[in-house]
């Protein structure tokens, strides 16, 4: 991808759209503006597409993490757990005289919004980014599993990567008994109230949006934290992270349908923390009083944190994926987010056909791929968006970067020229990915005919980083390992949803639903 060309195309599109309001000769084909619609022709070109299992994905570069258990009717049961360091809010803390802990609370915010049922007297919340409505087993452990900032295997010259398949390694280092166990934990949309000491030393009543709220054992933190005041273990965060190396927040199935929720670790207004509430002696006007105080431990804030995923595909799904080949393509494409599966798309697999099309010097008005859902194999809600990227170079496509329908604050309706949300016609449910500029570059400019990766994303805005003006500056990717084939990286946001689907591929028996590349073009020769 040539970035100079990207910025030039952005400016060109702005000019084109500015003129559409005053030129009646412009019309639309599939949302793309073209001229002389009577000369537009359609050509369907064969493609090859096949599924690829993702066995392990890097998860320590995510702004947020998921927690819980899901039961997918196609892909089976899976669990998402979290491993995190703790951080001292104040290094070498002074807890005062005679500090005695009375309660300890872990708080990690959920994503939520106010419900229409809210009134002036009561705010009612609904949880965002929650999948399922039943419970799961939740446990919390201290572990001696140390999380490095930099990778010792390459001389500490690169950031350490942590992967979704490392839960067994973490569990081998569990220290002592669990700090918390709840056999039927269920994320709650209820708000909660806290009492905080303001600048005047008075208690303020604070109403808070829903969050994961767990009471942890007082004796453990009295011994581990308050009783260690003045010690080398609490002198700085480097020492502290070697003292309490990590926590495992573990989700397990409990026989119910389970649920999985996205935790808002990036919330700056309500940071994730363990709050230690304690009383200490304080001299006031010559009298000793017991004063209640709070000390915070940061959870995953400015420190290492990663997701682990457990669960196996049913044997039939695994065999179906293993039986697909790059040479022929596939009847069905299996897409499952997290430690799941994706699809590899090869455009113009017949090199002779591509050269013949190039010789025609066609003006490409629109090119798209339409993926129909195999409703015979899946049912229920579909993932809302799919994302297509350059698999050879692990970066966004030109069409993604120049899509003027970007809406920073509304990802559900953002970039819909490039990736349409799931829709339905007489043939069933489908997704449309427009890759007009990408295909035009291959045909008319000799651009490399790279392989494309197709994945599920919960937020299509988050697959790339943008500057303050909203311009795309780079893809946000995660490495994969133990994964055969051409896949080296996938969009990081793929790990933040457990959803899955099955799409018709290029070998589908139903011709109307078979995957093809559709090119709308004008031939002036």
Describe what this molecule looks like in 3D.
This protein is mainly beta. The strands form 10 sheets. Strands 5, 6, 11, 12, 13, 17, 18 and 21 form an 8-stranded antiparallel sheet that branches. A 5-stranded antiparallel sheet has the order 3-35-24-28-27, with helices on one face. The protein has a 5-stranded antiparallel sheet with strand order 4-23-29-25-26. The protein starts with a helix and ends with a strand. Mean pLDDT is 90; it is low at 1-36.
Distance between the termini: 28 Å
- Whole-number radius of gyration? 27 Å
Mean pLDDT metric: 90
Number of domains: 2
Which band does the percent of strand residues land in? 35-45%
Class computed from helices, strands and strand pairing = mainly beta
* Number of helical segments with 4 or more residues: 8
* Shape type: elongated
Protein name: DUF4270 domain-containing protein
InterPro entries: DUF4270
Organism: Christiangramia aestuarii
Pfam family, one: DUF4270
Keywords for this entry:
elongated, 8-stranded antiparallel beta sheet, 525 residues, 5-stranded antiparallel beta sheet, 35 strands, DUF4270, DUF4270 domain-containing protein, 13% helix, mainly beta, signal
């Amino acid at each position: 991808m040539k970035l100079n060309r990207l910025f030039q195309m952005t400016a060109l599109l702005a000019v084109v759209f500015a003129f559409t309001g005053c030129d009646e000769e412009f019309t639309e084909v599939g949302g793309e503006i073209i001229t002389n619609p009577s000369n537009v022709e359609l050509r369907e070109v064969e493609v090859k597409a096949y599924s690829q299992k993702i066995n392990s994905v890097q998860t320590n570069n995510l702004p947020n993490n998921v927690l819980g258990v899901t039961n997918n009717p196609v892909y089976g049961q899976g669990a998402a757990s979290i491993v995190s360091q703790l951080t001292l809010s104040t290094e070498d803390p002074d807890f005062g005289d005679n500090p005695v802990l009375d309660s300890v609370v872990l708080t990690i915010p959920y994503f939520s919004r106010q419900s229409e049922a809210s009134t002036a007297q009561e705010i009612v919340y609904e949880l965002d980014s929650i999948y399922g409505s039943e419970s799961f087993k939740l446990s919390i452990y201290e572990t001696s599993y140390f999380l490095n900032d930099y990778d010792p295997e390459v001389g500490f010259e690169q950031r350490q990567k942590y992967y979704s398949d490392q839960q067994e390694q973490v569990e081998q280092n569990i220290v002592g008994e669990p700090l918390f166990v709840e056999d039927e934990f269920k994320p709650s949309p209820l708000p909660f109230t806290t009492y905080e000491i303001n600048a005047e030393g008075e208690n303020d009543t604070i109403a808070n949006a829903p969050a994961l709220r767990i009471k942890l054992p007082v004796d453990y933190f009295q011994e581990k934290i308050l009783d260690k005041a003045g010690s080398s273990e609490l002198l700085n965060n480097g020492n502290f992270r070697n003292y309490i190396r990590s926590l495992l927040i573990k989700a397990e199935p409990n026989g119910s349908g389970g649920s999985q929720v996205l935790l808002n670790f990036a919330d700056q207004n309500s940071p994730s923390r363990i709050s230690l509430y304690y009383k200490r002696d304080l001299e006031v006007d010559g009298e000793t009083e017991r004063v209640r105080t709070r000390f915070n431990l940061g959870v995953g804030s400015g420190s290492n944190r990663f997701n682990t995923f457990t669960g196996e595909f049913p044997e039939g799904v695994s065999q179906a994926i293993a039986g697909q080949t790059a040479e022929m393509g596939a009847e069905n494409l299996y897409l499952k987010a997290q430690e799941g599966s994706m699809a590899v798309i090869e455009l113009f697999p017949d090199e002779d056909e591509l050269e013949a099309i190039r010789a025609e010097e066609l003006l490409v008005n629109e090119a798209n791929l339409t993926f129909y859902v195999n409703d015979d194999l899946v049912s229920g809600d579909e993932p809302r968006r799919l994302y297509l990227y350059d698999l050879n170079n692990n970066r966004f496509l030109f069409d993604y970067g120049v899509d003027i329908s970007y809406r920073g604050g509304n990802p559900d309706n953002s970039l819909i020229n490039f990736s349409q949300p799931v829709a339905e016609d007489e043939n069933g449910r489908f997704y449309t990915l427009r890759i007009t500029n990408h295909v035009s570059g291959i045909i008319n400019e000799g651009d490399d005919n790279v392989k494309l990766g197709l994945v599920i994303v919960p937020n299509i805005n988050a697959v790339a980083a943008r500057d303050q003006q909203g311009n795309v500056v780079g893809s946000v990717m995660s490495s994969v390992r133990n994964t055969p084939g051409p896949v080296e990286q996938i969009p990081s946001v793929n790990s933040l949803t457990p959803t899955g689907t099955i799409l018709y591929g290029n070998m589908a028996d139903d011709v109307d639903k078979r995957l093809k590349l559709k090119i709308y073009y004008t031939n002036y020769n």
